TrEMBL record:
Species assigned in the record: Sclerotinia sclerotiorum (strain ATCC 18683 / 1980 / Ss-1)
Descriptive protein name: WSC domain-containing protein
Database matches in SUPFAM superfamilies: Galactose oxidase, central domain
Pfam families, per database record: Glyoxal_oxid_N (PF07250), WSC (PF01822)
Domain WSC: 48-141, 169-265, 290-355
Entry superkingdom: Eukaryota
Length: 677
């Protein structure tokens, strides 16, 4: 390369240094003249472009911010750089230091006209390509940028090839120009060189690798892909593919930057140059936004990295981590599912944010409106179940026989009108077996009897316990829990079952395990037991054990029973208890669909309130849960109208705070310490 300050001297080159020894005189070097060194003469611009001249530039503040890395330095010219910028959607293009290309929409960092653009382009020595800290800038002057390129197909008419022993459906598609404009190969996957390569062997290797296009080049090189990329185009003459194949001199295998292409595609697919996606984004995403999956799960920020990784979160995450932006050109890895666009790079994310109506909007009350904590009364136990009785009192059950409190009887009742006196407020009751991980319901009869089933181990797991509330607030109660597993019991022992009162008043008991962390009990049974009836095996409960404990059950207004377990849901026939309708799988985390909602993944479910005339479809809402493995909690609720044909789950992110609903009274009934877990 000629020196910027003296065109008669050589100042290195691309990857080359002119080296001088301190002890030798400079005059010993041959004198170079302008006739022996190519001197750039071209100062114009291709059609549609206007040369703006030489501008200053700096690595600390680029005049044009987006650097193009896809053009090899030795191939750099004004034309190749301008082509790359226009395909990227940029109006400004600049060449610098003989081999660098930059693009942008505006002049940045106080870039201003300067002198010193004296370096020849490495790919075309008749053109100027800036200099050291100097950039030749060009402006696209057409009224509008070219439309964004889309994949096309090329119907090829080529001379009949002499090769007849091709795999079925494969034909010759012509001689193609490779690495046009200094870009990469037109077929991305280069197989190891084979000195004995033939057309047939290259095609077969590409078929084995799962590709539909094969290309041979320069005797021994075999390339595969499913589309032509990097501005691939047919050569002007098929005779340009004129190098014999290494394994068969009667066959032609491309040439220098020429590729003999074969394919089983009728019309061969040609992809445009990839760009950073800022078109046709879902919803109201704009550049620096994300994909539809992130917004579906309520995240307002997202990005793609390393071709195939998708991340979702909030804008605040980026702020909290002090993440810095870099030039778009550094996110230059093609998306694994769309080779027209870029999906970040190594440790770099193509970042997007949502700009329309907020996906989530949370407000928090303050002062008295936020509620208050009020100590009510100390408790004798840490209860496992609590039930408000028809007598205006609250019954509590806990582990019996294995309680941390060795003197516990396993059952107590609280009279809320007597909280000023511990002894008057608490009445000691009794159970006979351990109710740990049991299920409780209230019967819809005039006595509102309470029933508790299942438990910790035999005989607790088959236990059925009754309590008929009596007394009144301020009036002592006398009734106690009744239990005799030798006379009335479940047909199968159950730990972590669910129970529900059916429309006819019977009790449906579902699932569980034989005991603490034991084998699954994948069945249903009815209380009281119908004459001659046994349990009903459910393959879906066996298949999803141990993630389906405490399944959610709902009686549907239209008939049938809704059941949700792990991450699945269905409707059962209320008579046969067989599956009547499969419902969509329950969404979990944005990055793990295997998350679950029932125990041990710890979610909860409710039905939304209904109002007269009760014609709106019933809505089931399930909140919380976790994913397997690290067991990270889910931060969303999902809702469904199970009776509506084609209904889909709706996802709503929820704040991780205690939420109050009317009436705003919450009872905190004890917490185990970590040592007890």
């Amino acid at each position: 390369m000629p020196c910027n300050g003296n065109l008669s001297q050589v100042c290195g080159g691309s990857g080359r240094l002119s080296v001088y020894d301190l002890n030798n005189a400079i005059i010993s070097l041959p004198t170079l003249t302008t006739s022996s060194i190519p001197v750039p003469t071209y100062t114009g611009a291709p059609t549609g472009w206007e040369p703006l001249g030489c501008y200053n530039d700096s690595v600390n503040g680029r005049t044009l911010n987006t650097q193009v890395y896809s053009i090899a330095g030795t191939s750099m010219s004004v034309d190749t750089c301008l082509s790359a910028c226009i395909f990227g959607g940029y109006r400004l293009s600049g060449v610098e230091y003989g081999s660098e290309c930059y693009c942008d929409h505006e002049i940045n960092n106080y870039g201003a006209p300067a002198t010193g653009c004296t370096m020849a382009c490495e790919g075309n020595s008749t053109q100027f390509c800036g200099g050291a800290g100097r950039i030749n800038v060009y402006n696209y002057t057409a009224t509008s940028l070219p439309s964004t390129p889309t994949p096309t197909t090329v119907s090829v008419t080529v001379p009949t090839a002499t090769i007849t022993d091709l795999p079925e459906g494969w034909t010759y598609k012509g001689c193609w120009v490779d690495r046009a404009l200094g870009l990469g190969s037109i077929l991305a996957n280069n197989l190891p060189n084979d000195a004995n390569m033939t057309v047939e062997s290259c095609i077969q290797n590409c078929i084995t690798a799962g590709y539909s296009i094969a290309g041979m080049q320069y005797y021994t090189q075999c390339y595969c892909d499913s589309a032509i990329i990097n501005q691939g185009a047919l050569a002007s003459s098929d005779s340009q593919c004129n190098t014999p194949c290494g394994g068969n001199s009667n066959q032609m295998c491309g040439g220098g930057d020429r590729m003999s292409v074969y394919s089983n595609q009728t019309d061969i697919k040609v992809l445009p140059l990839p760009v950073i996606e800022n078109r046709a984004l879902p919803g109201n995403w704009k550049y620096k936004g994300c994909i539809s999956l992130c917004s579906e799960y309520g995240y307002g920020a997202g990005g793609m990295e390393f071709s195939n990784q998708c991340f979702c979160g909030d804008v605040q995450n980026v702020i909290d981590h002090n993440a810095a932006s870099v030039n778009d050109s550094q996110c230059n890895m093609l998306c694994s599912g769309d080779r027209d666009t870029y999906c970040g790079g190594p440790s770099l994310i193509s970042y997007y944010v949502w700009t329309d109506t907020q996906l989530n909007s949370w407000t928090f009350e303050s002062g008295n409106a936020a509620g208050k904590y009020e100590f009510l009364i100390g408790g004798p136990i840490v209860p496992l179940t609590s039930t408000v009785g028809i007598n205006g009192k609250v019954s509590f059950l806990e582990k019996f026989g294995t309680s941390p409190d060795k003197n516990s009887t396993g059952a107590y009742e609280l009279d809320l009108t007597q909280v000023s006196s511990f002894d008057a407020a608490w009445r000691t009751m009794h159970v006979k077996t351990d109710i740990f991980c049991s299920a409780s319901i209230v019967l819809p009869d005039r006595l509102a009897r309470q029933i508790n089933i299942g438990g910790w181990s035999i005989p607790s797991t088959i236990g059925i316990r009754f309590y008929t509330p009596d007394g009144a607030p301020g009036v002592p109660s006398k009734n106690d829990w009744e239990e005799n597993y030798q006379e009335i019991a479940l047909q199968e022992g159950r730990w972590y079952p669910s129970a529900m009162v059916m429309a006819n008043g019977s009790i449906l008991v579902v699932g569980g395990e034989v005991g603490s962390n034991g084998a699954a009990v994948p069945s249903l049974e009815i209380i009281p037991r119908p004459p001659g009836a046994g349990t009903l095996f459910c393959d879906y409960l066996q298949r999803t054990d141990p993630f389906n404990l405490y399944p959610y059950l709902v009686v549907l207004p239209s008939g049938g029973i809704f059941i949700a377990y792990y991450n699945e849901a269905r409707i059962l026939d209320e008579v046969t208890l067989q599956t009547q309708k499969l419902l969509p799988n329950i969404p979990a985390a944005v990055n793990n669909f295997l998350g679950g909602r029932t125990y041990p993944m710890e979610g909860t479910a409710v039905i939304m309130p209904q109002s007269a005339p009760y014609t709106d479809p019933l809505v089931v809402m399930i909140c919380g849960g976790s994913i397997p493995g690290p067991e990270i909690a889910l931060d969303n609720c999902v809702s469904l109208q199970p009776e509506v044909a084609g209904a889909k789950w709706t996802i709503e992110r929820m704040v991780c705070f205690l939420s109050y609903f009317v009436p705003r009274t919450v009872s905190l009934m004890g917490i185990y310490s970590l040592q007890n877990e």
